[in-house]
Write a structure and sequence with these properties.
heterodimer; A: mainly alpha; B: 303 residues; mainly alpha; MetI-like fold
Chain lengths: 271, 303
């Protein structure tokens, strides 16, 4: 029976064309000579050159990267803890509420999350700025990390952990020496996901940020509202490039680790 | 010592993220509800009564006495808000349906693909999700504009002789939502189709079902958990969507996320925007709980 039919191939090709064509067009028109993003007038890199003289944009990029690095790192620690709590301790008081608080932010409209966090910062008298932005980003990205790490933990063979404990390792030692090495790829992809989500966020940032802490998406958004320009296409192209390189590195690393893991397992069984 | 350490470790793993989420995610909702019961004031923060810990319990009681549901009455009296809620639900519903129509064949095709190329296909679906949401929405402006790339193409091909007006209409919003949320629909459907036992459809066909009938009676019902998860992942955030209606929609497009944003940033009316958010949350609480329930069930099965 032929399962991979012509209809299947066609729907995949159309689906992927729909997903990728807009991005390709955006990249192509960042190299356009003309100021119009819809009429091709020849190849030029002048928008990229102009970009590096746009101080406001560079400042925003720097803020975004710092917020991203700090928030992704803390979110990864918290998210991994949350994932452990969810998978290892199936019963504790308020577990329903806990899992609700992990899943709800994944689908919660950003306007609600942003507004509620802003009102919290105002209520406790925390001046809006870099740190409120970072705290907000930690909060919404840690749930994504938790879900990614959790899915890895669910397929994890717990008997190795139990073996380590039986041999006298403390839970902390077991976690650091047995569990963490195994779930490291998932933790790492959780970090990358948290970082890109933070890099990308507009709505929550706009609510929780204050003077002097304008992020790149906020800057891009205010420029887009004034009109579409090749300069923005150039910024977007650079961002897409960074993400593409990051994802490529991540997938190569995880594939290598996977191959290594399979080899190790085979070696272990061979003995 | 080891025992004490282990108990502490177990406890901290739960307590730290729990406390964090309680403080930064759950408590803020109560603050939103509380402020939605306040009055607008020309001050900073622009609402009355303000929290004042110094006034003690008596002050707290006084505060509660000042609470009013005026903001909610205001929301029901102004047709703008009711229309915005209704049209948000409508737009999110239509978009979710359209996303399903496009995502299902893609997910089905992926599940039928030779297992050697499946990881690559999966990677290609996830990849756009990593690139900025704002950028992906922005990319459509240049395509959908009256003098944009789509109209240029269609005019050159002779399909139309007048440029189509798509940008700043609801159609642009549908396209934007379908485009941005497509991976969220494809992935859960794919994962439920991939797990499926193909001998079932073969059995149905052997027993005389046509392939189409076999699909509707066997394959589709078995993929329903994925369909439901995908629809929730698209519908819930789409109801409160702000970026897409703001950049692609027109001035007459009403969506509640945009209304809330304007109420907050342009009108600086914090109590009314808090009331708008509270109602939106109440509308979404049922689908969110449904989503969470489905996810926990899926996790329990995975365990």
């Amino acid at each position: 029976m032929q399962r991979w039919s012509r209809f299947n191939i066609a729907s995949i090709v159309i689906g992927f064309a729909f997903l990728y064509l807009p991005i390709v067009l955006l990249v192509v028109f960042s190299f356009n000579e003309s100021k119009l993003v819809t009429v091709w007038a020849g190849f030029s890199t002048k928008w990229y050159v102009q970009l590096f003289h746009n101080q406001a944009l560079l400042d925003a990029a720097w803020v975004t990267i710092r917020v991203g690095l700090i928030s992704a790192t803390i979110a990864t620690v918290l998210g991994t803890m949350a994932a452990l709590a969810m998978t290892r301790y199936t019963r504790f008081r308020g577990r329903m509420l806990f899992s609700g608080m992990i899943y709800a932010p994944l689908v919660m409209p950003e306007v609600i999350t942003g507004l509620s966090m802003l009102l919290l910062f105002v209520a406790i008298g925390f001046d809006r700025g870099f740190w409120t932005l970072t705290l907000a980003h930690i909060t919404f990205t840690m749930c994504f990390v938790a879900v990614v790490v959790q899915s890895r933990l669910l397929s994890f063979d717990r008997s190795i952990e139990e073996a380590a404990m039986d041999l006298g390792a403390t839970p902390v030692a077991t976690f650091l020496q047995v569990t963490l090495p195994v779930i490291a790829p998932a933790v790492f992809s959780g970090w990358v996901l948290a970082f890109t989500l933070s890099l990308d966020d507009l709505v929550i940032s706009s609510f929780t940020s204050g003077p002097g802490a304008t992020t790149l998406p906020m800057r891009i958004y205010s420029q887009v509202r004034l009109g579409v320009t090749p300069e923005i296409n150039a910024v977007c192209t650079i961002l897409i490039g960074i993400v593409a390189i990051g994802v490529l590195i991540a997938s190569v690393v995880s594939r290598r680790r996977e191959i290594q893991r399979v080899k190790d397992e085979q070696a272990a069984f061979a003995h | 010592m080891a025992k004490f350490g282990s108990a502490l470790f177990n406890r901290l793993v739960i307590v730290i993220p729990y406390a964090w989420l309680l403080f930064f995610f759950l408590i803020p909702f109560f603050i939103v509800i509380r402020i939605s019961l306040s009055e607008t004031a020309v001050a900073m923060p622009p609402y009355l009564p303000v929290f004042d810990l110094a006034s003690g319990f008596g002050g707290f009681i006084d505060n509660i006495k000042q609470f009013s549901i005026d903001n909610y009455i205001w929301l029901t009296e102004d047709a703008l808000y009711t229309k915005a809620y209704a049209s948000s639900l409508w737009i999110a519903g239509v978009s979710t349906f359209l996303t399903l129509l496009i995502a299902y064949p893609v997910a089905y095709g992926m599940a039928q693909a030779p297992s050697t190329i499946r990881p690559t296909l999966l990677m290609l679906v996830i990849l756009p999700f990593w690139t900025s949401f704002l950028i992906r929405v922005y990319a459509w402006i240049a395509i959908l504009k009256p003098e944009g790339l789509l109209n240029q193409l269609l005019l050159t091909l002779g399909v139309i002789d007048q440029p189509l007006i798509i940008l700043n209409t609801n159609w642009a919003i549908y396209i934007g939502i379908v485009y941005s949320y497509l991976p969220f629909m494809v992935l859960p459907i794919y994962s439920s189709l991939e797990k499926m036992d193909h001998s079932l459809t073969e059995a149905a066909q052997d027993l005389g079902c046509t392939p189409i009938r076999a699909f509707w009676r066997v394959t589709f019902p078995l993929s329903l958990p994925g369909v439901v998860a995908g629809c929730m992942l698209v519908f819930i955030p789409a109801v409160g969507e702000f970026v897409i209606p703001d950049l692609l929609g027109g001035s007459e497009t009403l969506m509640i996320g945009k209304t809330l944003w304007n109420e907050f940033n342009a009108n600086r009316d914090w109590p009314v925007s808090a009331a708008v958010a509270t109602i939106l949350l109440l509308i979404l609480v049922v689908p969110i709980m449904f989503f969470q329930h489905a996810q926990s069930k899926a996790d329990a099965e995975g365990r």
